[in-house]
Write a structure and sequence with these properties.
Blueprint lengths: L10 H4 L5 E3 L18 E2 L18 E4 L15 E2 L4 E8 L8 E7 L7 E8 L7 E7 L5 E6 L7 E7 L4 E8 L7 E11 L14 E2 L6 E3 L17 E7 L2 E8 L7 E6 L5 E6 L7 E8 L2 E9 L7 E3 L4 H4 L2 E6 L1
Parallel strand pairs: 1-9, 2-18, 3-5, 4-6, 13-15
Antiparallel strand pairs: 5-12, 6-11, 7-10, 7-12, 8-9, 8-11, 10-21, 14-22, 15-20, 16-19, 16-22, 17-18, 17-20
């Protein structure tokens, strides 16, 4: 990404650039994307309850890096490999002579089956430092999130979900052009997603659940690429039902999540669906006159794919879990 040369008096106007966020304000939450595309009655408006937390982020370390750490690392091909859950202090960027305009770093996501999310922070920025932080997927070199500040010495942070074993790059630079070198600290905290049923994004990977036994799982989605694809947020479950009626209920829906639950028969035909347009509301299917046999339960976000990266703190649907139970 080329550095901006916009004068500081025009910084606020540059915030209109797509994908960028000024950190001097509180980042707003992302709205739902995409069209509904699904049918069925509206979801129940039950309130969300307590959701399970994500897994432990593991051990923590610190490296006194210094200005020359990882240099030369001014291009993505020269990105310096760094560890998650580690602080790197005393880093520097933006030489007046143009010799150190960018810092690139690269992480490899841990091999947790359900994936995880990373919170990256740039802090202890020295006086006269205007930090910009951009995260890329190494698979396609496109930007996941771009956040910056117009306040000298201000800290910035962002989050993004990660696929097991995938590589991602972090770029740090002076926002809005060349200027004096400034120092900063960087930390990337990784938290694994606590979901024992992943991977289950495809019908053929559906996980067996038992009648009358509540399970907890995550609604977060990740990809080695920048953009999510249809199905990346799908959770498939397999359950055997007797003839008659059945109830499929998703509860403890995260406060910022729109659930959509479907019941599919052995041929893959939808025989029931319930979704909500109210964030945090529960979803429940009351299926009638079923033929006994094996069924699939599909859970995904209503009306489009969820976000997987943004400035600020991760949303509840990434850090928490929903509860799903099938009863007869």
């Amino acid at each position: 990404m080329n550095l901006r040369t916009t004068l500081s008096l025009l910084l606020v106007g540059s915030a209109l650039v797509t994908g960028c966020t000024i950190s001097t304000g509180t980042p707003g939450s992302s709205g739902s994307s995409g069209s509904s595309g699904s049918s069925g009655s509206s979801g129940s408006s039950g309130s969300s309850g307590s959701s399970g937390s994500s897994g432990s982020s593991g051990s923590s370390g610190s490296v006194v890096a210094g200005c020359d750490f990882g240099e030369p690392n001014d291009t993505r091909e020269q990105a310096k490999a760094v560890d998650v859950n580690t602080s790197y202090t005393g880093l520097c960027v933006s030489n007046p002579d143009g010799g150190d305009l960018l810092d690139f770093f690269e992480i490899t996501a841990p091999a947790d089956a359900a994936g995880g999310y990373v919170q990256v922070s740039i802090s202890n920025v020295s006086s006269k430092g205007l930090a910009e932080l951009i995260v890329y997927s190494a698979a396609d070199n496109a930007s996941l999130v771009d956040t910056y500040t117009t306040e000298d010495g201000a800290s910035i942070k962002a989050w993004f979900t990660v696929t097991p074993g995938a590589k991602y790059r972090v770029q740090v630079n002076r926002f809005a052009g060349a200027g004096p070198r400034f120092s900063y600290d960087m930390r990337l905290d990784y938290t694994k997603i606590n979901d024992a049923f992943e991977p289950n994004n495809r019908k053929e990977d559906a996980k067996v659940i038992a009648l009358g036994t509540p399970i907890q799982a995550s609604a977060a989605a990740h990809s080695p690429n920048t953009e999510l694809s249809v199905g990346d947020d799908s959770d498939y479950y397999k359950v055997t039902l007797g003839a008659g009626n059945a109830t499929i209920k998703l509860s403890n829906s995260p406060a910022d999540y729109l659930c959509d639950v479907e019941l599919l028969d052995a041929s893959g035909e939808r025989v029931g669906e319930n979704y909500t347009t109210t964030p945090g509301a529960n979803c429940q299917i009351d299926a009638k006159d079923l033929v006994g046999g094996q069924y699939l339960v599909l859970q995904h976000q209503f009306a489009g794919l969820p976000i997987r990266a943004k400035a600020g703190e991760p949303p509840a649907f990434v850090t928490a879990r929903y509860t799903l139970e099938v009863t007869q």
